[in-house]
Amino acid sequence: MNIESIKTLQEKLSELIGISGYEDDVSKFILNLIKEEQLADKAWIDQLGNVLAVVNGKQNEDRILLDAHIDEIGFLISHVDKEGFLRFAPIGGWDVRILLGQPVVIRSETGKLYNGIIGSKPPHLTTVAERKKLVAIKDMYIDIGMFSKEEVERQGIKMGTTGTLSCPFLDFPNDMVRGKAFDDRTGCNVLIQIMRILKEKPVNDTILFNFAVQEEIGCRGAITGAFTLKPTIAIAIENTTAADVPGIKDHEIPAYIGKGPAITIADNSIICSSKVNERLIKNAELAKVPYQMKRPLYGGTDAGKIHISRDGVPSSVVSVPCRYIHSPTSLLKLDDILHTVELIDAFIRNSANIKI
Ligand code: CO
Prior knowledge:
Aminopeptidase; Elongation Factor Tu (Ef-tu), domain 3; binds cobalt (II) ion; globular; alpha+beta; 9 helices
């Protein structure tokens, strides 16, 4: 594992389209990769769409679940106007302020991709008062360059068709990359890198993987995945807001770019197990992996559901800091992903010998 292999996989995962409930392109890609590289003893897609995998341990002591969600926020077409404009309903938590003027990509019934632009009433035709107000999604439309409802529907685009904001993967200075859906294809990348390491260097505990669907609309895949896999310990690998940008006071910043994986103490969905966190921190220190603590209490993750699965699962969250999540373009530093893989690897090997 190196920065290059992390980057190659990050680009592939990020460019797949899979909004909540429509993750098939992503789940097929991940299952194929696991099978081709023979990364697990068992891997399958469950009834809800999660990709589940098991790597048996040498002694099969604990069952450690690593969870990352494969869905991304997007939208469903809710109506096609007779002039060919599309109306849409957001899926997941969009920042409405940044939607206007954005390029989007629509996936037709046959899987063909169409480009579009989110528009609204042009500025020349609005009053000063109107321009000061936030435009509601119901007053926006998507223009895909077609002129009638019939023309649109002939392409297999109709009510229920999905799409998302489009954003090509790009290099930035300092090993930073920009792209779409880093939340949480980054976590999927970490899980696959861990599987690759496990293939070379097995561990004692059994490691379970859930590439989970439908996180953005209520962590639904995490519920069924944890039920099936019956973990005794769990970690959700996420992308978290690195709001280390102008206008945010130091005490309000959840996490920083470039300071390594962020370990959650608590968020709105979980009070993380202090035992799991102790095992993370002691092993990070022993392996000299940089880490930071995420400032409570922002957000919620799959761990919120996993820790209350069955009779309870000691759980925590480890996140790769990322700027501008839930916007069209996310920005992160590749070595934060590398250090997250190193931290999870140190955790499952547990050289610090912390019992949970
Ligand atoms: Co996420």
